[in-house]
Amino acid sequence: MEGVVQASIAQEDALLGSLNAQQREAVMHGPGAMPAAPLAIIAGAGSGKTSTLAHRVARLVRDGVDPARILMLTFSRRAADSLVRRAGQVLAKASKLRATTPAALPWAGTFHSVGARLLRDYAARIGLPPTFTIHDRGDSDDLMSLVRQERRIDTSRTRFPAASTCVSIYSRAINSESPLRDVVREVFPWCSGCEGELDALLDAYVAAKQAQHVLDFDDLLLYWAEMMGEPQLAAEVGGRFDHVLVDEYQDTNRLQARVLRGLKPTGAGVTIVGDDAQAIYGFRAATVRNILDFPAQFDPPARVVTLERNYRSTQPILEASNAVIGLATERYAKNLHSERVAGERPALISVRDEEEQARCVAERVLAHREDAIALKHQAVLFRSSSHSAQLELELNRRNIPYVKFGGLKFLEAAHIKDVLALLRWLENPRSRMAGFRVARLLPGVGPATARRLLDAMEEAADPLTAMREFAMPSAAAQGWTSLLERYAAVRDGAPGWPAEVEALIAWYEPHMQRMYEDGVPREADLAQLRQIASTYASRERFLTELTLDPPGASSDEAGAPLPDDDYLILSTIHSAKGQEWRAVHVLNVVDGCIPSDMATGTAAEIDEERRLLYVAMTRAKDHLTLMVPQRFYVRQQSSSGDRHVLASRSRFIPASLSGRFDTFAWPVAGGGESRSSASGTVVVDLAAKARGAWKR
Questions:
Q1: Closest CA to 381 of 613, 631, 173
Q2: What is the pLDDT of residue 420?
């Protein structure tokens, strides 16, 4: 008996030994395997959120929950894979299994990918064809453009929104569950006056999607949410899962919150994890209200466990960050603390303009490098991508390599879109967008011929018969016949998945070489596509997952290889969320940039801008620098053109917080920096500034 008790204690230590008290409280919430009361884990920046969530999943499985009855919802497939892997490692350690044994969680994935799976499972009962395909954002823009043209909208009287803007308006209305008129007034005011025609256009856009058996990203959530509004279906789907865990809940929109409430109306078995202080995606229709209001949605209210121990930053950085977010109008009260009590205070550096800002940042980056902080362990963050232009010039002058987050994504590259269109048209011959792109790959086929083909397929009972009977121009006949032969072979079961990708790429490559000059990097992308395809069990899973969670940059757009393996990171703050570096430099911490002058119309917008600065500050582990230019260049001002404007330090760092920072002016006579008093008064050498003033 004593041996059993000791074994149980050892197992418990293996499961919980690495966790602090708050994390243990979150992991052990609830009575074993039974669905527990709802739980909100408010995880401060750097507080071990992923570890806590992985340990909670491992604890549930250890206590007898069937992994197939756990639904894990994340915002990227990589996050889901990481959680599954870490939960498996924890479970293996606790149960003394081999460390490589994973806890298989078949229902771990993004909201969109899980929604797509459920919609296919229930397609016959909700009026969807099970072979529906999914449009990415580029496909949606193309279809909207086509519908816009077909409606012959009169654009001579007034400026009508471009196709991509129309898709954005539609997406915002769906995800925020807001009427079109409110979305236009609040988010797209320059489109006011077009609401009537927009409403008719969106009706036609939805009809086109349904006729072609396609869904876009927004539809995956909309159809899922509507399915959860049907009591019988909601009970069936919710009954498939004993526990539902949602990561990054502060980034959900109203539609996603409706899905969660539909799955588990009482909240039993629901765990949400997130941080209201890091809710920065309002421009994607995410709402901080979801996490702020979560506990009160249930009776009794959900339990709240707050994770406050930070494993990333020094205490001085956390004290400054806590002070900034502490001025927010509404938030969960938490005070991040660290065992790394030593360290320098964040630097608040005043510079004359953006040119001096660029020089100062470059010099500090190099100084950190001399202090053994590699370039790749440093980052420069900014509110808008355009804010780094001057710095990029300075980095190039000093031969400092860098990588900037952004650029063309893998699925946006033309040759990748070509191959995916081939696969989508094979999967769903009713997809006009895929068919239009494929037909135009053939020499001698223009828009008119492609439309005649698609019209014939749309009118036919069997679109494949219409394809075979269509008379292609002589220049395209050979390529068309070859494509039809490959399509027929695939539909007959040969060569099978993923060999069919190879067969279609072999057909496509001669056309790629004819259409594009830079064939070598494009061939590398096709090789990557083949490799990705080999990791999926079917064409349908490949098309769904690749569309919903694509790879990063394509090789032809990612830039030339760097001369060495060390490079500085440049990133927007939005793209930096979830990352960390030893040294972080934040550009343009001034009103007009942080907060953006485009995001100060409401108190809610200002609070989100405050959270954006907080996210930037909490990325730093050892060194944090906030740059304050005294003036900056404003571009494309409609009334007065481009001009320099005077700047003032961000309202988010008022004088009352100056004591949390070391305040400097750069440069001063003799070089280097000049430390200010705690009140923020800058000491400068006016004589040095006067010398050579006429040259500036």
A1: 613
A2: 92
| Residues 348, 298 share a domain | no
Exposure string of 404-419, with b = 16+ CB inside 10 Å and e = fewer, is bbeeebbbbbebbbbb
pLDDT averaged over every residue in the chain: 85
Tokens of 504: 């279609």
CATH number (domain holding residue 62): 3.40.50.300
Please choose, from the candidates 639, 616, 419, the residue with its C-alpha nearest in 3D space to the C-alpha of residue 516: 419
Of 32, 15, 24, 33, whose CA–CA distance to 93 is shortest? 15
Q: What are phi and psi of 492, to 5 degrees?
A: -85, 0
Task: Report pLDDT digits (tens) over 395-418.
Answer: 988 999 988 874 445 667 788 889
522 phi/psi in degrees, rounded to 5: -70, -35
- Give yes or no for a contact between 418 and 512, defined as CB atoms under 8 angstroms apart: yes
Higher per-residue pLDDT: 631 or 115: 115
Q: Give yes or no for residue 197 having a pLDDT over 70.
A: yes
Which helix (H) or strand (E) is 50 found in, with range? Answer: helix 49-62
Please classify residue 547 by burial: count the beta carbons closer than 10 Å to its beta carbon, then call 0-12 exposed, 13-18 middle and 19+ buried: buried
pLDDT of residue 612: 96
Compare 633 and 419 and report the one with higher pLDDT: 419
How far apart (Å, rounded) are the C-alpha atoms in residues 146 and 156? Answer: 18
Q: How many domains does the chain have?
A: 4
Counted residue by residue, the chain has a size of 696
Among 165, 160, 170, 257, CA closest to 209: 170
Domain stops at, among 497, 518, 548 = 548
User: Residue 634 has what pLDDT?
Assistant: 56
Q: Of 8-22, 272-286, 340-354, 356-370, which range is least confident?
A: 8-22
- Closest by CA position to 585, among listed 369, 372, 396: 369
Q: Are residues 581 and 640 in the same domain?
A: yes
d(CA 173, CA 183): 6
Please say whether the beta carbons of 435 and 457 come within 8 A: yes
Least confident range of 431-440, 528-537, 627-636, 656-665: 627-636
Backbone dihedral angles phi then psi of residue 166, each to the nearest 5 degrees: -60, -40
Same structural domain, 540 and 435: yes
Tens digit of pLDDT for each residue in 639-667? 444 445 677 899 999 999 999 999 989 88
357 CB-contact burial (10 Å; exposed 0-12 / middle 13-18 / buried 19+): buried
Could you tell me if 46 and 81 lie in one domain? yes
Q: How is residue 572 written in tokens?
A: 């927007």
Is 625 within a domain?
yes
Q: Residue 101's pLDDT is what? A: 39
Task: Name residue, tokens 């006067």.
Answer: 690
Q: Is residue 128 a part of any domain in this protein?
A: no
What is the domain range of residue 483?
Answer: 410-548
Whether residue 403 is found in the same domain as residue 423:
no
DSSP 107-144: TEEEHHHHHHHHHHHTHHHHT--TT-EEE-HHHHHHHH
425 and 525 fall within a common domain = yes
